[in-house]
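Deadline looming. Please check this record:
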Amino acid sequence: GEPALLRYAREFDRLEGPIEISRKEMQAAAKTVPARVRNAIRIAAKNIRAVAKRQVPRGWKARIGAGLTVEQRIVPLDRVGCYVPGGRFPLPSSLLMTAVPARVAGVREIIAVCPRPEPAVMAAAEEAGVTRLFRVGGAHAVAALAYGTQTVPRVDKIVGPGNRYVAAAKAIV
């Protein structure tokens, strides 16, 4: 639950302050990113969006006989969790490559977790349409996304790269 998540975030992620990053804080951090980097993020998001649009499956309906119709409906997940590593280098690309396709697919809520999100990651979160961003990583972030806590909402699917602990946690949940 929440107490364990906060304890692990402080111990492993060096969390100081609130676990959730406010929209205002995200926007302020994004403004500090050099214009050429923000532009590169915008272009990358545009390209990812274009590819993702082509990948969205289409539903269909077929009349197979008198009074008989078969239909396949494609319905997006309600909420997806995007894991963004926060190691030695910021990885806005990991956020873009997970959140943008989710947004294109019609996912209403995109929750991102990153133990130490740099301004470039926050700029990518803004560009990708991330709903909420949390300063937490590792296996405890995966558990929070899978089961939910008082602060971190439970998601329907967890996507994104991570180290062996993240990969093991994803396999377990």
